[in-house]
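Researcher: Sequence recovery benchmark, item below. Answer with residues only.
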């Protein structure tokens, strides 16, 4: 049972976490913190939070658990703000899509409270945002990755893992650097590709003609280009080394496909498509998104 949960960033991720814990009867009181008062008022109207705090430092003074569900670029400032006010027994976790930068920020700011910080990453994002996007059940059968620190007590890690499991999530552990390399490939690169395609087409003089004729495949592929620009700016810059490497590999693959097409090598192109199809059918189909 969490007596007082503080959610910094009451949107899809933070709001859904609070709603799930409420549904399971695992939290008594929830306070929301954020930059937009209107969003926080909406969160209170929707029953996601009980109270609104003017600052993160004020909110955490008597907190038992703090979830930071904010862009990763905003983490250092929030860590600095809450560090002096955190109660000794309070646990802090986050929902950032990169982990090495968040861990570095925590090490630089939390001092002797570092052991109470459990880095995390729920894999349940969407292109929607804000309190109205939050819903109970979002994390059902979805992966949540924790990247514990050497300073974390096993019982503290277990507490966060158990709360995510109570939300229906499938929890696993990973090293922060490994996490960032994996997600550069399977999350950050696809977003870059979707953003690039939308930007290129939208810049054409007759862009409306293309979009009017775009089918469901185009809509599915570019759905993630509707994601929050600030959040993805921060993710991209935080993980730039791994992401640049993935972009280079992808550009090389595209260049190879272009050469096959230009040279008329239909057999090689079909073989590449077949390998990709086989991988999609047997390695991705049926897995949580």
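Model:
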């Amino acid at each position: 049972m969490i007596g007082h949960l503080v959610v910094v960033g009451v949107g899809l991720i933070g709001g859904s976490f609070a709603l799930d814990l409420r549904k399971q009867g695992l939290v008594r009181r929830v306070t929301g913190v954020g930059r937009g008062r209107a969003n926080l008022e909406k969160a209170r109207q929707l029953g996601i939070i009980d109270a609104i705090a003017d600052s993160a430092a004020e909110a955490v003074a008597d907190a038992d658990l703090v979830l930071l569900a904010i862009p990763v670029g905003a983490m250092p400032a929030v860590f600095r703000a809450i560090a002096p006010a955190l109660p000794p027994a309070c646990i802090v976790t986050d929902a950032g899509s990169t982990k090495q930068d968040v861990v570095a920020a925590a090490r630089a700011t939390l001092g002797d409270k570092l052991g109470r910080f459990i880095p995390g990453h729920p894999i349940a994002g969407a292109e929607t945002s804000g309190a109205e996007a939050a819903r109970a059940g979002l994390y059902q059968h979805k992966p949540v990755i924790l990247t514990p620190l050497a300073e974390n007590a096993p019982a503290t890690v277990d507490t966060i893992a158990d709360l995510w499991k109570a939300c229906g999530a499938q929890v696993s552990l990973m090293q922060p650097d490994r996490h960032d390399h994996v997600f550069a490939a399977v999350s950050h690169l696809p977003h870059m590709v979707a953003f690039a395609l939308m930007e290129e087409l939208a810049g054409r003089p007759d862009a409306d003609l293309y979009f009017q004729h775009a089918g469901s495949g185009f809509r599915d592929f570019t759905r993630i280009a509707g994601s929050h620009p600030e959040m993805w700016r921060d993710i991209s810059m935080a993980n730039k080394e791994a992401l640049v490497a993935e972009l280079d590999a992808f550009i090389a693959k595209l260049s190879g496909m272009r050469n096959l097409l230009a040279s008329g090598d239909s057999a090689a192109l079909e073989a590449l498509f077949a390998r990709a199809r086989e991988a999609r059918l047997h390695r991705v189909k049926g897995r949580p998104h």
